[in-house]
Amino acid sequence: MSHANRPIYLDNHATTPVDPRVLAAMRPWWEENFANPGSVEHAMGRAAEEAVEQARVELAALIGAEAREMVLTSGATEANNLAIKGAARFAASQDSPRKRVVTLATEHKCVLESVRDLAAEGFEPVILGVGTDGMVDLDALRAAVDERTLLVSVMAVNNEIGVIQNLASIGAIAKAAGALFHTDAAQAAGRIPLDVAEIQADLVSLSGHKIYGPKGIGALYVRRRPRARLLPLFSGGGQERGLRSGTLPAPLVVGIGAAARIAGGEGMLDAGRIAGHRQRFLDALLARVPGVVVNAEAAPRVAGNLNLTLPGGVSAQAIMEAAPGVCVSTGSACSSASVEPSYVLRAIGLDDDRARATLRLGFGRFTSPQDVDRAAVILAEAWSRLVEG
C-alpha cells in the first residue's frame, strides 16, 4: 500500500509503531547473534546476555529504578498478573492477616480480573468508583485502605480516557497503611515523568509496544529495598530471579531497552508536539461537528489522548465503518471483542447510548499535521453523512 493510500493511524493507545531506530537495534540479534542469553558458556551467549543487561539498565532508567529491580515479562498483562497475584500469594504463604486488595473500576481488564480472581483464594477485592473526571477520590481511597490492606493497584494513565492519576498521593496513602502500591504504567512510561521513588511504588508494570518498541515484551519493576516479595505465576528454569522463568527473547529485550532510551531522551519533546496535534484536531473537528464532548476534560490528561462523544445519536462503530481511512477505536483494544459499551465510560457516568457514540483517538510520535487535518475532515464528513442519511 502506498503512503498516500495508507490509513491514518490514530490508535496509539492500542499499540505504537516500532521506531525505526528500535528496529535497527533489534535486527542483529535475529540475524547475526541469535544465541540464548542464558548460554553463557560460549561467546555468543555471553554477548546476548550483555545486550539483555544493557537493555535492563535502559529500561530501569526510564522510571528511576535499578536494573536489578526490573523483571522482564511478555508484556504488561503478565506483569500486572504477576504483581497482583504474586504479592497476594506470597502474603498468603506467610499467613499475613492482610487480605484486602484495592483498585479502581476504570482499571485495565487484566487488573480487574486479577483482583476479582483473588476472591476465590480468600482475599477481599475492593473496587472503588471514580468521578466524572475519571479521578479517584483520595478521601474515599484513604477510607478503603487500612491495616487489612495488602495492595493498592491504580493505573498511572487510563488507557481509554487518558487521565493521569495523582500517583504520589496514592502511594503515600498506601504507605501510611503499610500496604504495597502497584501501578500499571503501560500508558504512562515515556509520556509523563515517572520516578518510582517519588510515587513510593513497590511494583510498576511496563509494556514495550506502548513506547514504540516491539510487542511481546514488558517488565515489572519489583522494589528491592525494602523488598517487595512475590511468588511466581509458573515454574521453569529460574530466570529473572526465579520470578519469571523462560528463555529471554534477546531481540525483544534489546528493543524495549532501545525504546526506553529514546523515550527517556525525547518523550517530553514528543509530548509537546503531540499535544499540539491533539488540539489542532479538536479545533478542526469542533468547527465541523458542533456539540462534540471531550470526556473527562477537566482532569489532567496525557498529551496524545482524546475521548470524544459525538452528537446526533450516531454510533462510533458506524462512524468507523464509514471512515475506513482513519484508524481509531471505541475503547480498549483488549476489550474490543465485547459488544457491551465501555465499562470505563460507564464508570464516569456516561449512559449506554452516549458510550456507544464515543471514539478514542491516540496521537503519537509519528502523527503528522497532515494526518491530523485529513482525519478531522474524514471523520466529520462520515458523521455528516450518517446524521443526514
Principal-axis shape equals globular
Radius of gyration: 21 Å
- Listing every helix as H and every strand as E from the N terminus to the C terminus, the arrangement reads EHHHEHEHEHEHEEEHEEHEHHEH
Question: Order of strands across the widest beta sheet?
Answer: 2-8-7-6-5-3-4
Poorly predicted spans: none
Number of continuous helical runs: 12
- What do we call the CATH topology of the largest domain? Aspartate Aminotransferase, domain 2
> What is the level 1 CATH name of the largest domain?
Alpha Beta
Overview features:
12 helices, 7-stranded mixed β-sheet, 3-stranded antiparallel β-sheet, 389 residues, 13% strand
Describe the structure.
With 389 residues, this protein is α/β, with parallel strands linked by helices. It has helices at residues 20-26, 28-31, 43-62, 76-93, 109-117, 138-144, 167-176, 250-288, 316-322, 343-347, 352-356, 369-388; strands spanning 8-9, 70-73, 100-104, 124-128, 149-153, 180-184, 203-207, 218-222, 293-294, 305-309, 326-327, 358-362. It has two domains: 3-17 and 267-388, Aspartate Aminotransferase, domain 1 (Alpha-Beta Complex); 20-261, Type I PLP-dependent aspartate aminotransferase-like (Major domain) (Aspartate Aminotransferase, domain 2). The protein is built from twelve helices and twelve strands. Strands 2-8-7-6-5-3-4 form a seven-stranded mixed β-sheet, with helices on both faces. It has a three-stranded antiparallel β-sheet with strand order 9-10-12. Helix 4 (76-93) packs parallel to helix 5 (109-117) and helix 8 packs across helix 12. It is globular. The mean pLDDT is 96.
